[in-house]
Amino acid sequence: NTHIEHTHTAEAGMRNPSGRSPAGCTLIGILAMLAAPADAVRCVTPTCQCEALKAVYSDLQISDIHTGFPGTEADCCKLSDVRCNDAGGITDLKLRGGTSTPSGVIPLESLKGLVELDRLDLGKDSSSSISGTIPGSLATVGNLRDLTLTAKRLSGTLPAELLGTGRLEELKVTGRISGTVPASYCESPSPKQGESKEYGMLQDLELGDNEHLSGTLSWSCFTQQYLEELRLDSTALSGTLPQFVDLPRIEEVDLSETKLSGTVPGRLCGKPGADPSPLQLLKLSRIEDLSGTMPEQCFKLANLKELNLKRTRVAGTLPRDMDLRQIEVIDFSNSGLSGTISDGLRRSKSLRFLELSRAGVSGTVPSFLNSLSLDGPGASCRLVDDTHSGNFQCPLPMDVPSCTRIYGQEIDCEYDYASPPPPPPRGFDGLDDLSPGMMALLLLFCLSGAGAAVHLVRRSLAPRKSIAEAAAMALEMQVGDIKVVK
Length: 486
Description:
- The protein is α/β, with parallel strands linked by helices.
- The protein is globular.
- The protein has helices spanning 2-14, 27-35, 38-42, 46-60, 108-111, 436-448, 450-461, 467-475; strands at residues 82-84, 90-94, 103-104, 119-121, 129-130, 146-150, 170-174, 178-179, 204-206, 212-213, 229-231, 238-240, 252-254, 259-263, 281-283, 289-291, 306-308, 315-317, 329-331, 336-340, 353-355, 360-363, 380-382, 391-392, 405-406, 409-410.
- Strand 25 (405-406) and strand 26 form a beta hairpin.
- The longest helix is centred in the N-terminal third of the chain and has 15 residues, at 46-60.
- Helix 6 packs antiparallel against helix 7 (450-461).
């Protein structure tokens, strides 16, 4: 591994903060190159990096579906899942549809030969079979800034040195990761001389779908100046949401199905008096201990596309001047929100999913819903569900069929869907209710006298009864107002 380490050191001296080799070389870079062994210098060449890539493919037991690489010779920069810079150095390795499914463990030693690597994605669209744990020194591979490891068999804990000490700006990890989120993940590194302030700053943290990931999240994760995406959904993370939030560049927040608690921070939807928030996605669904009043500014986000508060205790009244003109998905079902459907939704021409069932929203159903995108492929509008009639005023407008039907049937909003229909009466409504055997017994009772009837009752209906009990049963069959008692 000596030559790889030297290569990394030598190349680092020549690299500018953007991760690309400049046209000229600094004096430090030249001296580092001269001091490195001959084999280390060769590892900077595209040929050497291609050999390292061949080792990575072999370790992961994958091949390029078009060329058969590494079983056959090929130009590495022309492989489906590889991108290179102008000099032929490998900068991106993102396993997508161009290779077979990777397996085995993360090939750290082979990856170290990719000294110009900026982006690494071994997830194969979440179908990767990579197992084992995440090596902490993976962050030091090349000039890695974007790392994606979405593999269901990946286990262990999150290495503390993966973020905060390297130059990773985007981290996405999904699998069977346990333990806690290291505090270092939200520590902002001090920029080195010659580096831009943004270089190495956390921009994307996605740790969702790790059901055994627990503990609390450092408050500093909510004060990242350059953070754009924060996804921690479907984890066991707990603790109280901090009210002081400073995420001026945040675009996507997904904390759904966690054990977090507290109230929705108002500054999550932007600072008062600041520029409009760039927030596009806010998913807080299925957080059972999330309560309080929904901040009004969260209903006035010009860029928001999805707002999901499903199965929370978040309350508040929907503002009449709601302004979500870019919204596509609204789900307030089983929440504590109330009020009426705001006329402000008239501007939400892209709205294709509206779920208000089992919430406190009431009033009239506005006809303008029919002018939105709620009726078509992939669209859904549910104002009530199949067990609850809701609180909307009758009659429901028939010109909004996508919102006033359940399973294709018109909703009867006056019908109490929550109560089961009454059972049919169990009394005697006529001779049609009698079985053939009972009819024969009745006929014999009328024609042959009570003795024969008692005999048949005892044989057919109550073989273990005494004669007196059978007689009592027979006598309770009255020809006028017939009533059968078993």
